[in-house]
Amino acid sequence: MAQPDTARLTNPVKETLKAGGVSLGMTVRLGRSPDIARVAKASGHEFIFIDTQHSIYDLETIAAIAHTALAIGVAPLVRVRGIADPDVSLLLDNGVTGIIYPDVANAEEARQAVAICKFAPIGRRSVVGGYPHFDYRTVALTESVPQLNDACLLVCMIETTQGLDNVEEIAAVEGVDVLHVGSNDLLVNMGKPGKFDDPAIIAAQDRVIKAAKARGKFAGIGGNRDVDPPGRRHPPRRTVCDDADRHCPAHRSRAGVDAGRAQGTRLASLHHGPGPQPLAHRY
3-class secondary structure for the chain? Predict the structure, then answer.
């Protein structure tokens, strides 16, 4: 028998963005204890960005971190290894509320991502009986499926010139929530590693923001190192992953969060016109 729904499932990142606020997150690459989620919350972060593309995590560790994050109102997001990562549905079934796909090169790959992450009619994700997102309460599928779809943040990273060439088509795929520029990898692919003030990467960031906005999506920028070329308009940010666990002890993290939130607010104020506010992520 279905139990009464005491609280609707939401993703704090999505809710903050919809309200026009600034959402801050912490990259997690070294932490293995679920308490890393508590450190993130105590230091003012709304989400954690568990990086399984570049760090080694087992599924049980990710689930334990995700369960703690869910319980305290922090969104657990995971960057997976690629479009063919076989563990995505397991992650989503076991507490994760967002998947970040690296190096999405075309619309077909974006559609594959949606098919894995979202339930019908948007995708083809399989259902299971009982989700940690609802504290394992029995929730009718008529309620749980729409809530899980709404709470799942699907991010496609643009990290090659091929992805950039196809970004307008990727943005048009229903079910994708965020287009995110991986500035480090994109610059390497362009043959310009580390040149964060190069006109080509600035043009690429602007193109992704424009494509996302045109389709009612959010845009993200990651990896760039606070360069400020003369006359350059900063890409406006509503979400900032402002620090990483490898260099973010709790005793100094709050100051970084306050600075990141102020920066996000300042940059977001440069955004003009209707539509979703772009996002940003710093490694």
Answer: CCCCCCCCCCCHHHHHHHCCCCEEEEEECCCCCCHHHHHHHHCCCCEEEEECCCCCCCHHHHHHHHHHHHHHCCEEEEECCCCCCCCHHHHHHCCCCEEEECCCCCHHHHHHHHHHHCCCCCCCCCCCCCCHHHCCCCCCHHHHHHHHHHHCEEEEEECCHHHHHCHHHHHCCCCCCEEEEEHHHHHHHCCCCCCCCCHHHHHHHHHHHHHHHHCCCEEEEECCCCCCCCCCCCCCCCEEEEEEHHHCCHHHHHHHHHHHHHHHHHHHCCCCCCCCCCCCECC
